[in-house]
Amino acid sequence: MFSDFAKIVREAAGKPVDGVHVLIERAPECKSVYVSGFLENTSKEQVETYFDKIGALEDVVFSPSWEDKRAIVYFKNKKSMSKRSSKFTITLVAIPLS
């Protein structure tokens, strides 16, 4: 993590990339995780139930093709992201949620 963004911008200003001065902007803080590798019978509700235990959810968006088995889970609060490491493995088992 860069603690002095202004310093980064100043130093980069003196070092063009391939002779071109590039624009450097601070990216917004991330509140989402990329999830993949679901079993064929894993439901959206199971994914929501699992991640809601980590933090309040804003949305869960699946790839247009369910065969891709990918989703982006958006949390309401960025603090939910600090509860887990940047990369972790989960196992979702297709069971009734009754």
Topology:
Layout: H1 5-13, E1 32-36, H2 44-52, E2 57-62, E3 70-75
Antiparallel strand pairs: 1-3, 2-3
Question: What would you say this structure looks like, in words?
Answer:
By secondary structure, this protein is an alpha+beta fold. It contains two helices and three strands. It has helices at residues 5-13, 44-52; strands at residues 32-36, 57-62, 70-75. Strands 1-3-2 form a three-stranded antiparallel beta sheet, with helices on one face. A hairpin with a 7-residue loop joins strand 2 (57-62) and strand 3. The N and C termini lie far apart (43 Å).
Structure keywords:
98 residues, alpha+beta, Alpha-Beta Plaits, three-stranded antiparallel β-sheet, 17% strand
Summarize the structure.
By secondary structure, the protein is α+β, with helices and mostly antiparallel strands. The protein has helices at residues 5-13, 44-52, and strands at residues 32-36, 57-62, 70-75.
User: According to CATH, what is the class of the domain at 28-83?
Assistant: Alpha Beta
What is the percentage of strand-forming residues?
Answer: 15-25%
Task: Please count the helical segments.
Answer: 2
Question: Rg from C-alpha positions?
Answer: 19 Å
Specify the overall morphology. elongated
Which residues sit in consecutive blocks of at least 5 with pLDDT less than 50?
93-98
The sequence of SSEs as H and E is: HEHEE
- Strand element count: 3
Task: Tell me about the largest β-sheet.
Answer: 3 strands, antiparallel
Stated plainly, the CATH topology of the domain at 28-83 is called Alpha-Beta Plaits
CATH architecture of the domain at 28-83: 2-Layer Sandwich
Query: How would you write the strand order of the largest sheet?
Result: 1-3-2
Q: Kindly name the structural category.
A: alpha+beta
Alpha carbon gap, first and last residue: 43 Å
What is the share of helical residues?
10-25%
